[in-house]
Structure formats: C-alpha cells, structure tokens
Specification:
The chain has one domain. It has three helices and no strands. It starts with 9 loop residues before the first helix and ends with a helix.
C-alpha cells in the first residue's frame, strides 16, 4: 500500500509529498465551543450547589419533619376511623361506588386520548 504506484498523477503525488498547511482556527467555532464549555461548567456548579443546599435544608428541617409525621399519623388514624364508619352506611357505600365509576370512566377517556 505504501509502494509507489505508476497509476497516480505525478502532480497529485507531489502535492501529497509536500508540506501540509494547517488552516488557522475559525474564530466562530472556537468562541462557540468556549461558550458551551463555560455554560456546562456553570450548570454543573449550579447543580452541585442546589444539591448541597437541599441536603442542608433537610438536615435543618428534619426535627420539624419528624414532629409533622407523628402528628399526621395520629390524624390519619382518626380519618381512617371516620371514613370506615361512613362507608358502612348505605349512603357511604353508594358514594364510594359512584366515585369508583367516575375514576374508571375518566381513566378510559384519558387512555382513549392517548391512543388517538
């Protein structure tokens, strides 16, 4: 493959043997690539700072979150008792059935829109 071949044009061969001239860098592409790199660095820094701020906020707010979860669990027990007592009545049973039918109908409409 590197052997000289008589089939090539001698002028073309002389061009390839000569010194290769590199074109100067294009200012638009180099500026654009630098701007993209700077934007990526800013985005990475912003992401890391926001994650660190989120972790610090969770650490600061964690005692209040624990208190809120205890309060919510006691209120949920009361809510479940109330709902179960209401569902044992005929009106509660009919309302639950109508709610289930409404959810079934709404989901069918959403699926029909997605498949069009």
């Amino acid at each position: 493959m590197n052997e000289p071949n008589d089939e090539f044009d001698p002028r073309l061969e002389a061009l390839f043997r000569g010194e290769h001239v590199h074109l100067p860098a294009e200012p638009f592409s180099s500026k654009t690539l630098a701007a993209i790199a700077a934007a990526r660095r800013r985005a990475l820094l912003t992401t890391r700072l926001l994650r660190a701020a989120g972790v610090m906020a969770l650490i600061v707010v964690s005692p209040q979150l624990v208190d809120a979860s205890v309060w919510l669990s006691t209120k949920l027990d009361e809510a479940f008792e109330l709902v179960s007592a209401w569902l044992t009545t005929p009106y509660g049973l009919v309302a639950a059935g109508l709610a289930a039918l409404a959810v079934w109908w709404a989901r069918g409409r959403v699926r029909a829109r997605l498949w069009r």
